[in-house]
Amino acid sequence: MNNKRAVILVSGGLDSTTVLAMARSEGYQCYTLSFDYGQRHRAELVAADRVSEALGDVEHKVVKLNLDSIGGSALTDTSIDVPEEETGGIPITYVPARNTVFLSIALGWAEVLGANDIFIGVNAVDYSGYPDCRPEYVAAFEAMANLATRAGVEGNKLTIHAPLMDMGKDEIITAGVALGVDYSLTVSCYQATEEGLACGRCDSCRLRREGFVAAGVEDPTRYLP
Questions:
Q1: Which residues are annotated as a binding site for ATP?
Q2: Which of 8, 102, 103, 199 has the fewest CB neighbours in a 10 Å radius?
Q3: Which domain CATH number covers 113?
């Protein structure tokens, strides 16, 4: 039996779904992890479960957090409008410390499972300016993980994989299509309806649409009329 296990952070969006397909193609038993963290675009949780099942995960776990209790982001505070135009600097859709919290919980589950690998779909090309999507951040977290865990101290090196880090959205889509990903199952919109219909105007929708155009792949996204 294959004991090559990995924890995959899965949001239900395009990038993390592609990463799940990549991990599976590398022979990992995939344990997918999602977060109900108070996000306004909750259709992504349904999509995360859908893509996890479609891509043959071993187990899909949803951890409930309350990042909305601290606010500070248009994705967790409904009093802050989701921007529909490009803005300079770090956008208001940045969720404070989100990837650090998510990776920390993934790290704990990986130790429980005896998994030495964690996959995350962060990207430094089309990353919307988020500081926790940079290669320096991933390298720093991996170093911390190997200092802070029993697994790391006992010589079972933990690796944080970010295979999309240097890929454009079109390259990500092309890679996913080659691996058989059905992108109609995914939801990327920051303000998707409960049914998963995308607004077509937010930054995430813009990057997604441009990616499909550049890849020459038909966009399967269901947009609001």
A1: 10-20
A2: 199
A3: 3.40.50.620
Report the pLDDT value the prediction gives residue 127, as an integer from 0 to 100. Answer: 57
Within a 13 Å sphere around the CA of 71, how many CA atoms are in the beta-carbon half? 6
In a domain, 222, yes or no: no
How big is the CA angle at 49 (ends 44 and 52), to the nearest 5 degrees? 115
Query: In total, how many domains does the chain have?
Result: 1
pTM value? 0.94
Q: Which residue ranges in the chain fall short of pLDDT 70?
A: 1-2, 86-88, 126-128
> Is 128 part of any domain?
yes
- pLDDT for 147 equals 97
List Cα–Cα distances, 208 to 40, 131, 212, in angstroms.
19, 20, 7
> What local confidence, expressed as pLDDT, does residue 136 receive?
95
* pLDDT in the model for residue 27: 97
Question: Binding site residues for Zn(2+), as ranges?
Answer: 189, 199, 202, 205
Give the domain extent around 123: 5-73+89-215
